[in-house]
Amino acid sequence: MSQTRAEQKEQTRRTIIEAAFRLLSAEQSFANLSLREVAREAGIAPTSFYRHFKDMDELGLTLVDEAGLTLRQLMRQARKRIAKGGGSVVRTSVDTFMEFIATNANEFRLLLRERSGTSKAFRLAVQRELQHFIEELSDYIEHKTHANHQNAYFEADALVTLVFNAGAEALDISQSKRELLAEKVIQQLRFVAKGSAALRH
Amino acid sequence: MSQTRAEQKEQTRRTIIEAAFRLLSAEQSFANLSLREVAREAGIAPTSFYRHFKDMDELGLTLVDEAGLTLRQLMRQARKRIAKGGGSVVRTSVDTFMEFIATNANEFRLLLRERSGTSKAFRLAVQRELQHFIEELSDYIEHKTHANHQNAYFEADALVTLVFNAGAEALDISQSKRELLAEKVIQQLRFVAKGSAALRH
DNA sequence: CCAATTAGCGCACACATGTACGCTAAATCT
DNA sequence: AGATTTAGCGTACATGTGTGCGCTAATTGG
């Protein structure tokens, strides 16, 4: 045999996940995506869906995890690029993030929307992903500048908020305007970094 | 007669609008609110809805306008309080905004959610409301500090972003934790203001 | 090799939705 | 006073939904 049963099942699971991502767009959010639509796109019977996920919520949380993972992997790459010393930390990070928005718009949309969606579990899941970046950045700042913990944390939180928000704006504008947007957010990040340093003690 | 036909119609329209707001909550967004639900809550027949709104989208845009108006009125009051010289500009503004979140949670949720929703018209409508605050604040900064236009604008944009985002966080936490949140955002606003001033020329 | 498990399917059902259509009664207009 | 307009209603229909149930065919385990 070429595949075990478990492998086959896993493959169908992936098909479902990918079908769901494919159906997300500017006009369609996960919230108004039906089980039957996903099954149709995945090429399986509606009832077969249940062999893989308890309900749409379980699928949704999986998607959030996947999107978070993709984003984290990308930012890890960015850190490598930074370590190799190619350009400003801020600019490289922002550029990488903007690249994520451009290439994985629907993954980002999922995070963006479910952050304020109607399911508390979803909101928490997205919050956890963001928290990851905030804490990582906070540690970095604390170590690099010897700021006290709260100062570093507030700074990191502000930075992540501003970048994430800029990502949301990026979704609705043309590629050419995104460069202006990048300039804006970079400048804003500098405000925060500079201000935080100035108010440090 | 006690009411003209036009007055009666306007009154029913208000009933619909208020019914819709009443149905919004942490668990229900405008997007997954049906015409029939709204009609039921308003105490009219589903088909009567059409006498007042072309479709749910038209109602939704009306709600966004209303929510924006409420917020603007509140912030105008805040400015009066500030002009009378009672405490810091930043703190008074943040406190007022947080008060808005607490008293009009569902209005705010509407703005928050539709800002990243599936209807471009909705996203633009919310963006317009935010733009209003950014420009007002930008003018204020430009006048007060003689900053150049872009610097003032970027600063104002960052300030509004941070406050709005803190509002979103406030929705999911207890009243007691909101005070800590207020401290955080106030500190972050100071970072931006200080940093912007330092990078000014 | 036989028994047990299970991924996937088709069928069926009860339910909610948006909205077309035509009516009524009251307000408004001429 | 008579004609016109219109807010609101009830009925009806086509469509999409989640999910329970029982079957089949194939993989797995003893």
Explain what the structure shows:
2 copies of one chain form a homodimer. By secondary structure, chain A is mainly α. Chain A is 76% helix and 0% strand. Chain A has helices at residues 5-23, 35-42, 56-83, 89-103, 105-114, 120-145, 149-170, 175-198. Chain A is elongated, with a radius of gyration of 19 Å. The model of chain A has no long low-confidence stretch (mean pLDDT 96). Chain A binds chain B through residues 26-29, 31-32, 109, 112-113, 115-118, 120, 123, 154-155, 157-158, 161-162, 165, 168, 172, 184, 187-188, 190-196, 198-199, and chain B through 26-29, 31-32, 109, 112-113, 115-118, 120, 123, 154-155, 157-158, 161-162, 165, 168, 172, 184, 187-188, 190-196, 198-199. Chain A binds a DNA duplex (30 and 30 nucleotides) through helix 1.
Report the CATH topology name of the largest domain in chain A. Tetracycline Repressor, domain 2
Strand proportion of chain A: under 5%
Please identify the oligomeric state.
Answer: homodimer
Question: What's the pLDDT, averaged over the residues of chain A?
Answer: 96
Structural class of chain A: mainly alpha
**Biggest protein-protein contact in the assembly:** A-B, 36 and 36 residues
Which sequence of SSEs, written as H and E, runs from N to C of chain A?
Answer: HHHHHHHH
According to DSSP, the number of beta strands of chain A is 0
Helix content of chain A: over 70%
Tell me the CATH architecture of the largest domain in chain A: Orthogonal Bundle
End-to-end distance of chain A: 67 Å
